[in-house]
Design brief:
This protein is α+β, with helices and mostly antiparallel strands. It contains six helices and twelve strands. It has helices at 13-23, 44-56, 85-95, 151-159, 174-186, 228-237, and strands at 5-12, 31-32, 35-36, 64-68, 74-81, 110-113, 123-130, 133-135, 148-150, 190-207, 210-225, 250-253. The strands form four sheets. The protein has a four-stranded antiparallel β-sheet. It starts with a strand and ends with a strand.
Length: 257
């Protein structure tokens, strides 16, 4: 089994914004000579994807999660990686461009080896920021085949294709929809025994010159490991779509925390 390390890197958010501005990346609308188009949003995940790939190699620090306190410039980037501290530093020293040092300092990189083996039946707490979407295999409401939409919206449309009747009960909630989505994504790796939706927002993602709007949800709860090898792969690979852009990282916590 490939070893896995939990990495922490301090990030300057203001320097990250300047780095993105110099490159002209990370906005959901193209930059014009007189400024941004109306409704443009800044996608930090897209910027970090480019920064980490250029500095450490494609998918070396992935999945990742950026965590920042409100109104603070310094943030922490957490990531899983099979690479060790020496390998990451050597790649940085050889490949990173000088201006990247304004955004992050590899000398402050911290690393913790994750367990090499997991025990089936072990109960763990978790937290994850996810983008619970699916790509339609057939049309759904006004959305055509191939569209990527919120799993809660998909289930709502299919349950009430004509709209929720005045006397109808909408028993489905985002928390329920996202909990079932997470259980499906974990599959045989782990059983989801409890989930809370602790944060939800709409998120505009910059992907290939397009703007994709979708859910940005933080889930906390507990799981029981069922297949140790599959669980290790889920940690290393992340959960759901957009794992290369700051979604899907499973952070492990003590149960009950």
């Amino acid at each position: 089994m490939t070893s896995l390390n939990l990495i922490r890197l301090p990030i300057s958010l203001s320097a990250l914004g300047r780095w993105a501005g110099e490159r002209g990346i990370g906005w959901t609308s193209r930059l014009k000579s007189d400024g941004l188009e109306a409704g443009a949003a800044f996608d930090e995940g897209r910027v970090l994807h480019h920064l980490l790939s250029e500095s450490f190699g494609k998918a070396v620090l992935q999945p990742f999660r950026l965590m920042a306190a409100p109104r603070k410039d310094q943030a922490s980037l957490y990531a899983y990686s099979p690479a060790g501290q020496q390998e990451l530093r050597e790649t940085w020293d050889a490949c990173a461009l000088p201006e990247t040092a304004r955004v992050l300092d590899p000398a402050k990189l911290e690393i913790k080896p994750m367990p090499e083996a997991w025990r089936s039946g072990r109960r763990l707490g978790f937290e994850t920021r996810v983008r619970p979407v699916l790509r339609l295999l057939k049309p759904c409401g006004k959305f055509g085949k191939g569209a990527e939409i919120d799993v809660f919206l998909t289930r709502s449309i299919r349950s009430f294709p004509e709209g929720v009747p005045a006397d109808g009960e909408m028993k489905l909630t985002r928390e329920i929809a996202y909990s079932e989505w997470l259980a499906e994504k974990l599959g045989e790796a782990a059983e989801v025994t409890a989930v809370r939706l602790t944060r939800f927002a709409r998120h505009k993602a910059a992907r290939g010159g397009r703007s994709l709007q979708g859910p940005d949800a933080t889930l906390q709860g507990e799981i029981v490991i069922r297949d140790a090898a599959q669980f290790a792969r889920k940690l290393a690979g992340g959960v759901g779509r957009h794992t290369a852009y700051g979604f899907g990282m499973l952070l492990i916590r003590p149960p009950g925390s």
